Amino acid sequence: MDIRKSSKRLAKLLTYVLGRQPDEFGLVLDDNGYVRVKELLKAVCEEDGWKHVRRRHLEEILITLPNPPVTMEQGHIRAVDGSHLPRPEAATDPPKQLYHCVRRRAYPHVREKGIRPPKEEPVCLAADQEMALRIGRRKDAEPVLVTVHVSRAGHHGITFQRYGSGLYLSGSIPADCLTGPSLPKPKTKDEKPAPEPPPPPGRFFLEPDPQKRAEKRFRRKKEIAWKKERRKRSRR
Q: Tell me, what CATH number does 44's domain have?
């Protein structure tokens, strides 16, 4: 397949992702319809048959097609025609539970302080766990899945906006509105490490015991000294 045909196929996919259903791919566009190129590439590469797509393939669309359906600017990309995009709208009847993934390193902080989005970006929540994990794995290979209790969040005055068919947006979410896996128990200073278990039956250590090795050397030296003394007596 030549570059032009390949670019046409990719352009058709991008028209759908960026111009119609970004939520289907776990993407949230800004008010101007833009999304970071890195985020788009991660989402596209999750699709069968598109794992090879890189930034240069996006640039080829702009070069090879006479009327490219996308435009790129300062590390962001959007569809030229954004008239069919979903718009955030007030969620009048959101699910009782929504899901969000956080990095493993950030999870202890989230359990204590809650979810706080960077800058003015909204918190992206998913209606099902599979989508939440899909989005979370773009930042951490093994993210921690957190459940957001919507009714409890409502008591804090938190509102949710629906974005497309399966995503919801909100502001910061307090820690008492979240549930997730238990944190590992921290080790105390007086806590001693668990002793190593003995080797299973039928196995032995290749490395000799240091004390036995020292005893063996001592016996060998004593034996050599005794032999030397016997030779001296025989020569007399």
A: 1.10.10.970
